[in-house]
Amino acid sequence: MNKTLIVTLTAIVLVLAFAITLVPQEKQATAQETTPFPSREKIISVTGTATTSVEPDLLRVQFGVETQEKTAKEALEANSSQMTAIVEAIKKIGITEDDLSTSSLNIYPVYDSYQDKLTGRYTQELIGYRVSNILMVETSQLLLAADIIDSAVAAGANRVDSVYFTLSPEKQLETNDNLLAKAVLNAKSKAEKALTPLDHKIIGVKAISLSEFGMPPPIPYYDSMMMAEGAAFKSSTPVFSSDQEVSTTANVIFVIGSN
After folding, report:
1. Distance between CA 246 and CA 218 in Å, rounded?
2. Global pTM?
């Protein structure tokens, strides 16, 4: 066999080997690039709601004392003396130290402005210091609302900022859990009613989206009520709390199929 024939046969063998090697790679690439068929899953999206009436179990009363003296020390001492008397007074009606907390304590200078007769310029003169001490009472004894205010004012409180009823954290959590379950069941009921005339039924759940539990605003009795110094507060009737209406929603996506 001559050298020309040997070279030709060798070249043919190499070409065939190279072609055979490329075939599975092309098939593999084709398989990787194949896009799956879109899902033919049928769904229905429904929003369920649940509402309940909740009786508040927590009372919050915020009040305090404002005093003004020539020096900061004198103003603070006078304020502390009055606040001590107030705390002792409300303890006598059943409020404990665990129910009390300081909401804010502020000391700031007080200026008097006047116009200079010669220059016409306005000048500020420091005339004293004012101390504002705000106390928060938080208790489950809802019927003590009027007594707390009466006792505090009689003992020297000259401002009542707010009195309102709300839910304790424990009751909030309990109410939240109950409402979410009811909202999901309400969504299921709506979906079943909508599918009945379409001859379809629920066969699964694809997703559930729960809303944040929305607490209603607290029920105020007094709000931001500043009392004139020396004025008497008269509570002619007891302070009663009222139920709060709370609601929540849940969006559920159901998978459906024919009956």
Report:
1. 11
2. 0.64
If one counts every other C-beta atom within 10 angstroms of the C-beta of residue 198, the result is: 11
Q: What is the dihedral of CA 137, 142, 145, 146, to 10 degrees?
A: -160
* 58-69 and 100-115 strand pairing: unpaired
Spell out the alpha helix ranges (H) of the chain. 3-33, 72-91, 145-154, 169-195
Rounded Cα distance between 243 and 219, Å, is 9
pLDDT digits (tens, 9 = 90+) for 76-124: 999 999 999 999 999 999 999 999 999 999 999 999 988 877 787 888 8
For the chain, helix, strand, coil in percent to 5 are: 35, 40, 25
Mode of pairing for the β-strands spanning 100-115 and 122-139: antiparallel
- As a dihedral over the C-alpha atoms of residue 203, residue 205, residue 211, residue 214, rounded to 10 degrees, the angle is 50
Question: If you count them, how many residues does the chain have?
Answer: 259
Domain 58-166: assigned CATH number: 3.30.70.2970
Q: Which amino acid is at 242?
A: S
Taking domain 38-56+168-227+244-259, whether its CATH number is 3.30.110.170 is answered by yes
Which residues are CB-neighbours of 88 under 8 A, at least 6 positions away?
155
Q: Where do the structural domains in the chain lie, given as residue ranges?
A: 38-56+168-227+244-259, 58-166
